[in-house]
Amino acid sequence: MINLKQSQHEYWSNSLTYTLAATGAAVGLGNIWKFPYIMGENGGGAFVLVYLACVVFIGIPMMMSEVMIGRRGRSNPGTSVKRLAQESKVSSRWQAVGWLGALTGYLILSFYIVIAGWALAYVFKALSGDFISQDAAGIEALFVEHLKRPMQLIYWSAAILTATVIVVAKGVQRGLERTIKYAMPLMIILLVITALYSGFSGDFVTTLEFMFKPDFSKLTINSVVIALGHSFFTLSLASGIMLAYGSYMPQDISIYKTSLYIAAADTIVALLAGLAIFPIVFSNNLAPSAGPGLIFQTLPIAFGQMPGGVLFGTLFFVMLVIAAFTSTIALLESSVAYLVEHWSLSRWQASTLSGLVLWFMSLATVFSLSGAPWTQLEINGHSYHIFSILDYTASNIMLPIGGLLLAIFVGWRVTSAISQAELKCTPLIYRIWLMSMKWLAPIAISILFLQLIGVVSL
Ligand code: PFF
Q1: What is the pLDDT of residues 96-133, one digit of tens each?
Q2: pTM
Q3: Domain count, the chain
Q4: Which of 37, 236, 348, 395 has the greatest CB tally within 10 Å of its CB?
Q5: What is the spatial distance between Cα 358 and Cα 352, in angstroms, rounded to a whole number?
Q6: Closest atom of ligand 1 relative to the 234 alpha carbon
Q7: How far is the CA of 372 from the centre of ligand 1 (A)?
Q8: What is the CATH number of the domain that holds 195?
């Protein structure tokens, strides 16, 4: 018998607002800051092809599974998985998968707000002309100077966090939905403007060749592992987000179609970010494979030298902040849903409490970036700072384990009556989805995980 549950929160108004909100959650620092540099480091075009395969065969099926669990369970990530386990008559202990996802998202948010705050600080640096006529050494000094001042990092990340808390506190429709309705179109417009400007004023031909001409000689097995890991990060999988957003999805919306649109939009944004960044990187003879510093260290050199660089640089960082913000609100939602449902708090109380704890946690990242000695830990004779440990643990250990368990849960434990009723797709798509959850995703994620933690080296 079908026993549909009700969410204690509001629902998305319609298919478009859900799709925008979930696209906003997916599009973030991962698309604009991370994708271009990992593409740069892994040979460009060939990497893009592998990445697309990961999105289509693992990312989209995984997203469908998470949204399905959320919509069926109509609760915070942990409770939704528990309800589905009960409905499928398997051990309630599977709920650990949901809690793990929510915890992973929360940990990621603790450093994500610091990087988002950093982007916000760079809006003002770009606007006040700090990059003008600076050479690489000057920009590097600016970068180091910024990180060395913990108070600055605290102000900027607190600004992002406060805005996040306010939006989430206002609820699904008046907070999340209303913000996203304006933020997403604005972000896309800014991205298109920056890509066009960069394309016309920079080296567009070299960029096209770099991004779309596959050079398989540069592709290693490690690049495949990176592509799979990134498809999880960028689609916001295994982090509680899609479970939480799915729980507010009206029953008549197609999970398959919206997942397809979200993944397509996320990929287009990542490619557009490449088109906005690489033409000016190439025309200024800078390196496309500059690693994580590509946006904060390489691009400002170009902004400082190109005509209209103040305006262009400012718009670019505004766009980055908006992209990050539509993800921070999604990352906070699971914890707020949990506090409202289990502690009977109001959304304002839940959001403020969750925000305060996060602020406290974010200090670990702030002080690591500024090089405080207490943030350096000695592990097996190597010195690591807390930020890199947090990032490594959340992105390389918790995300893949969460994804693996989730795939096994829906592939092997959830009854097909439930998944067919929720997914309502054609028999062929359903078969592909099931194959991915039963076999492809668990095997690929296991290989990714063993490679990432260094147990196997392919
Ligand atoms: N998908 C967003 C990004 O690419 O920046 C935000 C995000 C959510 C990142 C969840 C990582 C994550 F686990």
Answers
A1: 999 999 999 999 999 999 999 999 999 999 999 999 98
A2: 0.94
A3: 1
A4: 236
A5: 10
A6: 4
A7: 27
A8: 1.10.4160
